[in-house]
Design a protein that fits this description.
Blueprint lengths: L8 H15 L6 H8 L4 H6 L3 H22 L6 H15 L1 H8 L7 H6 L6 H11 L3 H23 L7 H28 L1
Helix pairs in contact: 1-2, 1-4, 4-5, 4-6, 5-6, 5-9, 5-10, 6-9, 9-10
Length: 194
């Protein structure tokens, strides 16, 4: 009888990650992973206490991929736009990962959900505050509204509901941000005149 192959946790997580990337989180179960590994389900339960533990590690790896994508988004002249484009690009290139992170049921309220990801945009938002002389409260409000628009665009792309070229995405994001800033400028002017 040949010796039983031992699998490391990392091999199992990597296999589960690839399954989710191709088929989504719903396709992930012990039998499916074991089949991909050419092993029995015991391999999984030897390395993880349950599927919940494995799912958490797979989610962490997916979220790290997202954060890495966002950190790589740089544009010295328009960093906020670069982050929006990277967000939509992530939805296009990794639709199943995007769905796992951003299209699942959550107990968070809107502000918690959006600002939970502030670490990828915090420095960019500070640059906006300085460049456009916008209050911190208006900046938070502005960011939430831009994020909702960008999220809707990314959802349409991730679900293949509508096709947008990279140029169309760039133009939509640029136009939306510019129009919103105009609105905040008018709002600030009205406050100053009162």
């Amino acid at each position: 009888m040949p010796p039983i192959k031992r699998f490391q946790k990392e091999e199992i997580v990597d296999t589960a990650y690839r399954i989710v990337e191709k088929e989504g989180f719903d396709a992930l179960n012990a039998r499916r992973i074991a089949k991909e590994l050419g092993a029995s389900v015991q391999v999984i339960y030897h390395n993880f206490s349950d599927m919940n533990e494995l799912n958490k590690e797979v989610y962490a790896k997916i979220f790290y991929k997202y954060q890495d994508t966002m950190k790589l988004a740089t544009d010295k002249e328009k960093p906020y736009l670069a982050k929006g484009i990277a967000y939509v690009k992530f939805a296009r290139e990794y639709p199943e990962f995007y769905k796992v992170i951003f299209m699942q049921e959550s107990e968070m309220n809107l502000e918690e959900f959006i600002l939970a990801d502030i670490n990828t945009t915090e420095n960019v938002m500070l640059s906006i505050t300085k460049k456009f002389d916008i209050s911190e409260e208006d900046l938070k409000d502005f960011h939430i509204k831009v994020w909702i628009f960008t999220h809707g665009l990314a959802c349409l792309i991730a679900t293949k509901t509508v096709k947008f070229s990279d140029d169309e995405v760039r133009k939509l994001l640029m136009d939306t941000v510019q129009e919103m800033f105009r609105g905040y400028s008018v709002k600030k002017e009205r406050r100053n005149n009162e």
